[in-house]
């Protein structure tokens, strides 16, 4: 499990960002309000939850650990 990610924002969309970590760009799904508040070049730190499916690996990012815990509870 990937429990956190830190790095620089290299691109963003409505509900996702790409965080560069050690030269690798990792797509992180984030709440729209979080994506809207970020700019390319910002340094970020997210608590994460990885969902593994047959056809996808999806990483969700949260600014607070309590948000991630609530997300797990909803699942």
Can you walk me through this structure?
It is a single chain. By secondary structure, this protein is of the alpha+beta class. Helix content is 20%, strand content 52%. It is built from two helices and five strands; from the N terminus they run βββαββα. It has helices at 32-36, 65-74; strands at 4-12, 16-21, 24-29, 43-53, 56-62. It has a five-stranded antiparallel β-sheet with strand order 3-2-1-4-5, with helices on one face. The protein is globular. The two termini are 16 Å apart.
Write a concise synopsis of the structure shown.
With 75 residues, the protein is an alpha+beta fold.
Q: How are the strands of the largest sheet arranged?
A: 3-2-1-4-5
Spatial gap, N to C terminus: 16 Å
Question: Low-confidence segments, ≥5 residues, pLDDT <50?
Answer: none
**How is the biggest beta sheet arranged?**
5 strands, antiparallel
Integer-rounded radius of gyration = 12 Å
Mean pLDDT: 95
User: What structural category do the secondary elements indicate?
Assistant: alpha+beta
Q: Which range best describes the helical content: under 10%, 10-25%, 25-40%, 40-55%, 55-70% or over 70%?
A: 10-25%
Task: Tell me what portion of residues adopts beta-strand conformation.
Answer: over 45%
Order of helices and strands: EEEHEEH
Give a count of the beta strands, DSSP E runs of length 2 or more: 5
- By DSSP (H or I, 4+ residues per run), the number of helices equals 2
């Amino acid at each position: 499990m990937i429990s956190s990610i830190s790095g620089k924002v290299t691109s963003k969309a409505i509900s996702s960002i790409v965080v560069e970590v050690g030269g690798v760009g990792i797509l992180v799904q984030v709440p729209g309000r979080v994506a809207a508040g970020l700019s390319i070049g910002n340094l970020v730190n997210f608590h994460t939850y990885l969902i593994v499916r047959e056809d996808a690996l999806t990483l969700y990012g949260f600014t607070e650990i309590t948000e991630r815990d609530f997300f797990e509870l909803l699942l």
